[in-house]
Amino acid sequence: GSVVASYPYDDSPTHKLTGVYSKSADDEVFKYLAKAYASHHPIMRTGKPNCPGEEGETFPDGITNGAQWYDVEGGMQDYNYVWANCFEITLELSCCKYPPTSELPKEWENNRESLLAFIEKV
């Protein structure tokens, strides 16, 4: 897990494991939507999720192009964009894939304003 808003494409023509910016035709729209979410999240907006084992990982403005972060062939957001014209972003909301129940109220507080800002863009 991490704390970042990722946008298409997750896959790149070279399939290099990381570091390849894979720009879609709607790249600016995707960046706009990702920033709309990230800019309202208290951790995501810093671009420094500080996840255990990945303390040095950073994401400018709390967002990343999927393939630049790591290449994923056949990902859902790419599939939906290409085949159904859906504009999806992927939200990584926690360093922990399955946060304990006791942390869920805090996660809600961290994401509430981001969700509202994102919905307003729709």
Automatic annotation (TrEMBL):
It comes from the Eukaryota. The keyword Membrane does not apply. It holds the Pfam family Peptidase_M14. The keyword Hydrolase applies. Keywords: Carboxypeptidase, Hydrolase, Protease. Residues 1-122 form the Peptidase M14 domain. Belongs to the peptidase M14 family. This is CBPD Carboxypeptidase. The gene is Cpd_1.
